[in-house]
Design brief:
The protein is of the alpha+beta class. The chain has seven helices and nine strands. It is 27% helix and 26% strand.
Length: 254
Amino acid sequence: MGGPAGFVSRMNVFTHYQGLLDVFTKCGKDSGFQIPSPVLSLKKLNPPDAIWSELGIVGGMLSLKTDIADGSPNGFAEDWGLPLGELEILISPLEQIRIDDPWNIKRSQIEIAYLFFNLDTGKTELLLALHFDFGVKKDIDEPHDAHPLFHVSLTHKLFQLGAALQQRNVEVKRMEGVPGVRLPTAHMTLPSVLLNVAADHFQPQEFTKFLRHMRAAGEYPTMVNSFFKKRMEKHKTRMRSCAWYADLPAVAAC
């Protein structure tokens, strides 16, 4: 669906991100994960925020499961020192995107939880939980006090995945002792987080396929933040997560 330069219609936004999820799912399955096909949700917000839409996943999260066993494709038993069981990675996005011209993003919260189901004990344990975040104060267009503009928190107190952990009766003792710190990160929106997970856990050839798809997809929303845009306008490719990985193709193509 066409439009002025830089314009992305509602249908194109939906197709753009749903296509990203579909390719991620296929590459994940080909890497040995069980992944129910995720469906993107895109909901218009109410006034005074009616120019923005909330982007998420139907059901609130994406699930990747794999067996932990000697010789499994992902090698979790050997690499993580875990007994036999099942690993589940949950990814929950919540973003605010302007789907009209200009196509921008002003808020992003992505949570990831690594769950381990122990076959011997029959219990599920939280191995790791991450909360990627960025946002600014509405009145001054600056980050919140003592908050890096883009950051990740290590935490067992998850906002979006908290209910899912309760339903699974997940033990969070491992993460309870982690101090609440915010670590500055790159610009980790949903595409970036998916690429991060693919890089860490997919088979090399499947990661390469997903990386190529992300680059071929071309346009992603830029952050609607005046002071940050001025800093980055001379180096636009820095905000593309693929720029952090090997040249497949050249980074300049990002």
